[in-house]
Design brief:
Length: about 160
């Protein structure tokens, strides 16, 4: 699948998941078009997958966005969500849903994958751009928040290895 097609699938998947599960409406943007990334603290959420293909799917999400996402996923008013509370479970749930849909959209319903546990951590500002280097990524704006989805895959070898080797 071409890089352009992968980007289209990522855009459609992330947009669909945010719209259907969180009632948020993302707009795709080009990261080079003057989007400011300095205004927020970010979390990095990631999981690895293996099966017919192997790789990882990550999202870089502003910490403030997590509180709004949490409120929308739970059907609560944003004023009822404590912005100081750790709302990273909402970021993990978003990546979980996006990953499942993305793998189906890229490889079909018959493809089988194993997923690792989701990991979330605060992202150091100096690591922001090094994370997307060499990967397929998609950036969209949800209200004033940049949300970046990163996809990286490798071919899986079909060779069987001996247990004793």
């Amino acid at each position: 699948m071409s890089n352009r097609k992968i980007m289209e699938v990522i855009n459609e998947t992330v947009s669909g998941v945010l719209e259907q599960t969180a009632f948020m409406f993302p707009e795709p943007v080009d990261m080079a078009s003057g989007v400011s990334f300095e205004d927020f603290e970010y979390v990095l959420v990631k999981l690895n997958f293996s099966g017919e293909k192997a790789g990882e799917i990550k999202m870089i999400i502003p910490v403030d966005f997590c509180a709004e996402l949490s409120a929308n996923l739970l059907g609560e008013d944003i004023g009822d969500v404590d912005p100081e509370e750790n709302n990273f479970d909402s970021a993990k749930e978003l990546l979980n849903i996006v990953s499942g849909q993305l793998l189906v959209n890229l490889f079909g319903n018959e493809a089988l994958f194993s997923l690792t546990d989701l990991e979330v951590k605060k992202l150091e500002k100096d690591a922001f751009f090094s994370i997307i280097e060499g990967c397929e990524y998609h950036c969209c704006m949800v209200d004033d928040y940049p949300v970046i989805t990163i996809y990286n895959s490798q071919e899986v070898s079909n060779e069987c290895k001996s247990i004793n080797s």
